[in-house]
Design brief:
Belongs to the peptidase M42 family. The protein is an alpha+beta fold. It has helices at about 5-15, 25-35, 110-130, 150, 205-215, 260-280, 300-310, 325-335, 355-375; strands spanning about 45, 60, 75-80, 95, 100, 135-140, 165-170, 175-180, 180-190, 220-225, 225-235, 245-255, 280-290, 295, 320, 335-340, 345, 355. It folds into 2 domains: about 5-180 and about 295-375, Aminopeptidase (3-Layer(aba) Sandwich); about 180-290, 2-Layer Sandwich (Alpha-Beta Plaits), CATH 3.30.70. It has 9 helices and 18 strands.
Length: about 375
């Protein structure tokens, strides 16, 4: 039912449009024009006026279409992000042995333009074949790769859906992300006292030494099967002959269990405070929730719908948890029960990124089938 050549051509066209994260204007303008020509009325929100991103999110609402009387069904939302990581400018796709690659100097951008292309194909198929469906919303987000900024700043008043399908996981089509973690960020600025490191180091209070002492007392890495923690950024110092006065530090804790994440980030904060107080320094420490957790049970309606659709097209479901965050976390936080699906992209965020053409075809077929199952 899908047009495989059209889908491939669309994907190739999309990856050739530069859209590194925070530079999404060109692709949003392209999609607005494309969606208008498909007979929809895309709305760009003002997310780019509230966060450092290059354009707003695109939201499209398509009323239900029925040729027969139906009972109440779920209002569906399909979402993919349009931005990519770097190096993502001047992408030249190459087809080889059934896969699409870049030419090796850039990423490919299947993350997440494979999802965008599949959604566009699904829209065309249901229109061309007059397929009955309930209300459908399409959300193309921006700024996903720089901290889920698009979905965090979306105009929530425009969202009118019950169930969401996010197309943003690696793994073959059939992978269902049944759980995702809550994440807390920790940002600290430690201020000690500068002094000459060779003449009178005793007069100084080293922010670097304080950070080092705190970090050595933190439990980091894999905490347990549900929880991880990391210190990822440390910046400070101006010269080797100056006792470092100021240092900034950034870390995180995430867990499928909210209380574990709260406890972990709290322990990390306490380690910092203890080291700072011991040396007579000061610190400004900010802890924030970056996104909420989500979890699905095999008996949830959303899981039953997705598994039935997969079975109808001969795909075997694979249910897994994830330690990563995505727009699915944000939409679940908004009350839209959103499942993240594998779309076949491989080696993402690298110049070795690729996607099998058959996986691209398969995810488009799955989206059409989900619409049919829900109607």
């Amino acid at each position: 039912m899908i047009n495989e050549q059209r889908l491939l051509d669309e994907f190739i066209k999309l990856v050739r449009i530069d859209s590194e994260t925070t530079k999404e204007r060109a692709i949003i303008d392209y999609l607005k024009d494309k969606l208008t020509k498909l007979g929809t009325q895309p709305i760009e929100d003002n997310a780019h006026k509230e966060a450092v991103i290059g354009a707003g999110n695109l939201i499209i609402t398509i009323p239900g279409r029925y040729t027969k009387k139906v009972t109440e069904n779920k209002r569906l939302l399909f979402t993919a992000h349009v931005d990519t990581v770097a190096p993502g400018e001047g992408i030249e796709p190459v087809i080889r042995d059934g896969y699409i690659y870049s030419n090796g100097t850039t990423i490919l951008g299947a993350d997440d333009k494979a999802g965008v292309a599949a959604i566009l194909e699904m829209l065309q198929v249901i229109k061309e074949n007059s397929i009955d469906h309930g209300q459908i919303q399409i959300v193309f987000t921006v700024g996903e790769e720089c901290g889920l900024l698009g979905s965090k700043h979306i105009d929530k008043e425009l969202l009118q859906s019950d169930m969401g399908i996010a197309l943003d996981s690696n793994g073959n089509v059939g992978r269902i992300i049944t759980s995702g973690p809550v994440q807390y960020s920790l940002n600290a600025t430690i201020t000690g006292k500068a002094a000459h490191a060779g003449v009178n180091p005793e007069a100084g209070i080293s922010a670097i030494e304080i950070a080092a002492e705190a970090i050595t007392k933190m439990n980091l890495g894999r905490i347990d099967e549900e929880t991880t923690a990391n210190i990822g950024v440390i910046q400070g110092g101006i010269a080797t002959n100056v006792v470092c006065e100021t240092l900034t530090l950034k870390g995180e804790a995430r867990s499928l269990n909210r209380q574990k994440a709260i406890n972990q980030i709290g322990d990390m904060r306490t380690s910092l405070e203890d080291a700072v107080n011991k040396r007579g320094a000061v610190a400004k420490i900010d802890v924030n929730e970056e996104y909420p957790e989500f979890s699905f049970d095999k008996n949830d309606d959303e899981m039953k719908i997705i598994k039935k659709a997969m079975g109808n097209i001969g795909v075997v479901p694979e249910c897994v948890g994830s330690g990563g965050g995505s727009d699915a976390n944000i939409f679940n936080g908004y009350g839209i029960k959103t499942v993240n699906l594998g779309i076949g992209m491989e080696n993402i965020h690298s110049v070795d990124e690729r996607i099998a053409i058959e996986e691209l075809n398969k995810i488009a077929r799955l989206l059409v089938e989900i619409v049919k199952v829900c109607s």
